[in-house]
Structures are given as C-alpha cells and as structure tokens.
Amino acid sequence: MKKNILSFTIIVLMVGSILTSCGTAVKKDVASAKENAKAAHNDLNQARKDSQIELSSTIQSDWGKFKADSQIALDNSKIEIEKLRGEIVSANEARQQELNKELDKLEQNGNDLKKRLKQKNKTLEKSLTKINEADNILRTDFQKQFVSDMNELQTALKDFFSKNAI
Prior knowledge:
Elements: H1 2-88, H2 93-127, H3 133-158, H4 160-163
Helix pairs in contact: 1-2, 1-3, 2-3
C-alpha cells in the first residue's frame, strides 16, 4: 500500500510539473504571437502610409504634366482661333458673321475646357493629401474625357475652312 501511495504521489507530482511547464510555454507562445501581431500591424500601417505617399506623389507629378500639356494645347487653340479670325476678314460681311459665330462656339468650347481643367485642378489640390484609388480612377476618367474633348476642338479648328469655304 505504501508503494501504491508512493507511486501515486510520484505520478501526481510528475503530471503536475508537466502541466505547469506546458502552461508556461503556452503563455510564452501567446505573448510571442501577440508581439508578432503587433509588429505585423505596425508594418502594415507603415506600408499603407508609404503607399499613400507614393500614390499621392505619382498622381501629383502625372497631373502636373497633364495640366501643363493641356494648358499648352488650349493656348495653341486660342492662337489658332485668332489666326482663323484674321483669315475670315477676306469674306463678305454676311459670311464673316456666320464664320465668326462658328468660331465663337469653338472659342466657348475652349473656354469651357479651360474652366473644367481649373475646377478639376482645384478639387485635386484639395484632396491630394487623402487621395485613394477611387479618386485616381476618377482623375484618369476626367483626363480621358478632357483629351477627347480637346481633340474634338482641335479637329474642328483644323477642319474649319474645309467645312466653311470663304
């Protein structure tokens, strides 16, 4: 009986020490996992901030180039309109009025494009610090539409006299 009690006591002590040591290891593993999760979360936040800065920088440089190119194209269109106004002088008075009305429409289109560009620039400058991918898509769509409208204006200016012979 003493043997049984002694054996039982030894077994209980062994099981107790094993369970105690396992609990310590689990606690260490949990603490380590928490630290790793915190580090991963911090890394993710930093990557998101870096990505935001990079996206903002890219958009800013792309927009600056687009804006400059668009402004040059608008200025060239204005010069072309003035040049066409000078060529209209040789037409008779009734024809001059008709051609001037058409040029006024083209000039108004150019002014509208200039206003749209200015508005978009103002909007973009306000939101540049908190820009996201959806804003980038909207900006790209605006650029495509603007380029399309600008091309229509330039084509209309080039074809002005072919449609309107003096």
